[in-house]
Write a structure and sequence with these properties.
The chain has helices at 26-29, 34-37, 60-78, 81-84, 209-229, 235-249, 253-257, 319-330, 333-338; strands spanning 47-49, 89-97, 114-124, 133-134, 140-146, 161-163, 166-170, 173-174, 183-186, 190-196, 204-206, 261-262, 281-286, 302-308. 26% of the residues lie in helices and 21% in strands. By secondary structure, the protein is α+β, with helices and mostly antiparallel strands. It folds into two domains: 8-162 and 175-203 and 290-338, no CATH class; 209-286, no CATH class. Strands 1, 2, 3, 4, 5, 8, 9, 10 and 14 form a nine-stranded mixed beta sheet that branches.
Length: 341
């Protein structure tokens, strides 16, 4: 897959407006923010949350063990010069154990996701006689999510197909490295980079054409069975299954093993295209062997790092975005990765 090289600043997202609401003529009445942006900041007490720990079948002792490891990551983050002694903003770290998207049925056999959110609350003075105060909601943060490679997928994208092995997705585009770690463009979420500690196993596996077509057939059959259980039929599903089965039967063993790609122009029932099509996008699935489950469920084995704002294009126009970029550049990510197991 082609590697696209972007300037570092472009790897970090679109500047989003803060949470403050100003009058229409705010640009005329807002005083200069020099004093606010040079005011010494503080570190607020950290916040801890584990509303999903029980769903992930974690015991209280296991949750505490994970929190201790998240605290160790936070200690490294706090060594960043821009965060250690904040100026112009306050910092609060939020630790979470368990994923908010819901635990799978086999949660007891999976590594639970966890996260460290580093929130920056910028000081602002909204009028010449107003007090300098931190913004109510953070307009900039760095997020480190552990054991959840799905964070690299587009937030709006459902799997193209699903089988007994899991979801089949369009893989995220590979970008330049950040701090020596691979970065990916995740549509709808912005660029992110991945931390591992010497794991050579791939995050993703290419899905071959046979697996994808069989997954499509199985899904269409399940839909048709649902109709039939209600005494109905669905001619569209009947035709879809027939065409997909014919397509699969017409493939040679070599063609069945070729990578499945979508996008571009296709006349096939499955909508698969040739990998040489300039618009082709490879289909991938999570590598079930990536995690070493023998190390226990409290291990942190990989991390996905993202920022808000997701793109720091207009850096000079946003104090909070500038500070997020400085934090991202000054955190010792290799030291964070060394804490992974």
């Amino acid at each position: 897959m082609k590697v696209i090289v972007f300037p570092f600043a472009l790897l970090l997202g679109v500047v989003m407006p803060g949470s403050w609401s100003f009058p229409a003529d705010a640009a005329q009445v807002m005083p200069p923010q020099d004093e606010a942006q040079t005011r010494p900041g503080i570190w607020r007490p950290p916040a801890f949350d584990s509303p999903y720990g029980k769903a992930w079948q974690l015991k209280p002792g296991e949750i505490k063990t994970i929190y201790d490891k998240l605290n160790a990551v936070t200690d490294v983050v706090r060594e960043s010069p821009v965060l250690r002694s904040p100026v112009g903003f306050e910092v609060q770290v939020y630790h979470t154990v368990g994923g908010s998207t819901g635990a799978p049925k086999d949660a007891a056999n999976r590594l639970p996701p966890s996260s460290v959110h580093v929130f920056l609350f910028v000081y602002r003075q909204t009028c010449a006689s107003c007090r300098i105060e931190p913004e109510v909601e953070s307009s900039g943060h760095v997020i480190i999510r552990f054991n959840d490679m799905r964070q690299l997928l587009p937030q709006w994208q459902k799997p193209f197909a699903t089988d007994e092995q899991g979801g089949i997705h369009v893989g995220p585009a590979r970008l330049a490295e950040v701090a020596g770690f691979p970065a990916f463009q995740s549509p709808g979420k912005g660029p992110k980079f991945v931390l591992t500690n010497g794991i050579a196993r791939p995050l993703w596996l290419a899905v071959n054409q046979e697996r994808y077509i069989r997954a499509r057939i199985a899904q269409a059959q399940k839909s048709l069975d649902d109709y039939r259980s209600r005494g109905q039929t669905n001619e569209y599903r009947v035709r879809e299954i027939r065409e997909l089965e014919a397509e699969l039967a017409g493939l040679s063993s070599v063609e069945r093993a070729e990578p499945a790609c979508v996008g571009g122009t296709s006349k096939r029932p499955s909508s698969l295209v040739s990998g040489t099509d300039p618009k082709a996008q490879s289909l991938i699935a999570e590598n079930p062997e990536f995690y070493d489950r023998g190390r226990g469920r409290t291990t942190l084995q990989m991390a996905v790092v993202e920022t808000y704002p997701a793109q720091l294009i207009n850096v000079a126009k946003s104090f909070s975005a500038r500070k997020v970029q400085e934090a991202l550049q000054s955190i010792d990510w290799k030291k964070v990765a060394a804490l992974l197991e």
